[in-house]
Amino acid sequence: MKTPKSFVAALASTRLDTVFNPYSDHCPAHDGANAPAVRRRNLETFLEASIAARVDTMWIARDLGYRGGRRTGVPLTDEVHLNQAGSLLGGVALHRATKGPVVAERTAAIVWQVLKAIGEPAVLWNVFPLHPHDVGDPFSNRCHTRAERVIAEPLLRALIKLVRPRRLVAIGRDAQLALADIGVPVVGVRHPSYGGQTEFITGLTTLYGVDPDRCSRAPKPPLDQAASARFAFA
Known about the structure:
The protein is of the alpha/beta class and 234 residues long. It has one domain: Uracil-DNA Glycosylase, subunit E. The chain has nine helices and six strands, in the order αβαβαααββαβαβαα. It has helices at residues 4-12, 35-52, 69-72, 82-88, 106-118, 146-163, 173-181, 197-208, 223-226, and strands at 19-20, 57-63, 123-128, 131-132, 167-171, 187-189. The strands form two sheets. A four-stranded parallel β-sheet has the order 3-2-5-6. Strands 1-4 form a two-stranded antiparallel ribbon. The longest helix is centred in the first third of the chain and has 18 residues, at 35-52. The chain is globular, with a radius of gyration of 16 Å.
């Protein structure tokens, strides 16, 4: 796994029960015809651009959410913010893999709100880089198991080696504890869900030396998308 392409290929080959792999699985309800290939290319492009730009910080959350990375292939990024993600990395093209209305995710909205205020990109990832869901409910979010984390750990280590970040930021206590298990030095910030938005913004803007007032307190999708985009935390 020495290149983004080989890394994404390894990620796509991971198969687990009650886990949707957006880089190889096709969702019959929402995906376009070539959705897994689109998501693989989105992630390759995101990683290639990050490495080329020498992005030196990784933000790592817990799991891939069903409204965000499951649909786009880019962690912590929903369809509303695909263009913003591409722009922040120098104007690379990231594409929708799904059909129907654009779907928003509140966690992604807050993450990209802060990235916009900071004005520089971060490599975005999850401790468990696939979408774990409840049995019989593919559009739910559950916490990955310890066994699933162990299976995904070589991918996390490989990505850290590939990107060679100067610092890691764990988003939420679960991510911080998981990263502590593999001995990676990390700075922890509050997850923005369940009342943690202000602490999340304060933690990251302090880390980057940015005025937190540059982040508004109520992120919303663009007006032309608001009618079709319902928010939910991941």
